[in-house]
Write a structure and sequence with these properties.
302 residues; alpha/beta; Rossmann fold; Pantoate--beta-alanine Ligase, Chain: A,domain 2; 11 helices; 19% strand; globular; binds pantoate
């Protein structure tokens, strides 16, 4: 395991990436077009992030990760304050995954004039589901991701890919739309959800769950898998039964559970008959001190 090089400013990032890509392009005497994989994170890394780094490592010559707890996407100052900061452990995880470079800027480097006046708008899609309970959250996410993509954009001819977890399905859908709508020259790659042995999706917030709350939280994947089981058996997904399952868990408070189009995240018009095409089951619950989200693709029988 080697420790990744850590850079703090955008200038250092650009020059380190240019050097690494130039070396990769001429490695072995080759003249091929090198590739860069970027893994944006807020730190507090877990196995879900490890999967992002592994995917980026497998597909690119040079891999960079960013660690920045973005204040713009927190609408609750208490949530921002208590977000875990674990830089040393994060660098160990990224080093073990073979990440070459870590961009870990200070807030003043990212927002030198304070909170930006002009931001990327997440539009109507950013106001539903997660956006409904976290106003402005997705504008904050898109604004920082736009900045990271600009900063990491290779200055030499190179393939550029950026990796995001499918667990944050709405975030991923919005980043894909931003990249397409605003012509970012990066491929946006979605990486499957990583789950613990009990089915709970990996999340930086799981550390706040005590054993009783963790057990209660597993009602979320259980409800999603019940929907998937019915869909893949050719039955109508029973949304009401899945909702009732979550509502029977005394420690869980359901925010939403819905079946949506995977690309637009618009609710399917009818979920009372078997699916004709893949759909996404999307849910959020509050369990004790933590709000958890999860999702699962529902596939009709082949
Ligand atoms: O998913 C996250 O960790 C963050 O929302 C991201 C994409 C790094 C932007 O701050």
């Amino acid at each position: 395991m080697s420790t990744p090089q850590v850079v703090r400013s955008a200038d250092e990032l650009r020059s380190a990436l240019a050097g690494a890509l130039a070396a990769a392009g001429t490695a072995g005497g080759g003249t091929g077009v090198p590739s860069l994989g970027l893994v944006p994170t807020m730190g507090a890394l877990h196995e879900g992030h490890r999967a992002l780094a592994d995917a980026a490592r497998a597909e690119n010559d040079v891999v960079a990760a960013s660690i920045f707890v973005n204040p713009l996407q927190f609408n609750d100052p208490e949530d921002l304050r208590r977000y875990p900061r674990t830089l040393a452990a994060d660098l160990d995880l990224l080093g073990a995954a073979g990440v070459d470079l870590v961009f870990a800027p200070a807030e003043a480097d990212v927002y030198p004039d304070g909170a930006p006046l002009v931001r990327v708008s997440s539009g109507e899609l950013g106001t539903r589901y997660e956006g409904a309970s976290r106003p402005g959250h997705f504008d904050g996410v898109l604004t920082v991701v736009a900045k990271l993509l600009h900063w990491a954009q290779p200055a030499v001819p190179a393939h550029f890919r950026a990796y995001f977890g499918q667990k944050d399905a709405q975030q991923l859908a919005l980043i894909r739309r931003m990249a397409a709508d605003l012509n970012f020259p990066a491929d946006i790659v979605g990486v499957p959800v990583v789950r613990g042995a009990d089915g709970l999706a990996e999340s930086s917030r799981n550390v706040f769950l005590d054993p009783a709350h963790r057990q209660a939280a597993t009602v979320l994947p259980r409800a999603l898998y019940a929907l998937q089981h019915r869909a893949s058996a050719g039955a109508a997904p029973d949304l009401a039964a899945a909702v009732a399952l979550v509502e029977r868990e005394p420690l869980a408070e359901l925010d939403y559970l819905d079946i949506v189009d995977p690309r637009t995240l618009l609710p399917l018009p009818a979920v009372d008959r078997p699916l004709e095409k893949p759909a996404l089951a999307l849910a959020a619950v509050r369990v004790g001190p933590v709000r958890l989200i999860d999702n699962l693709m529902l596939m009709p029988p082949a």
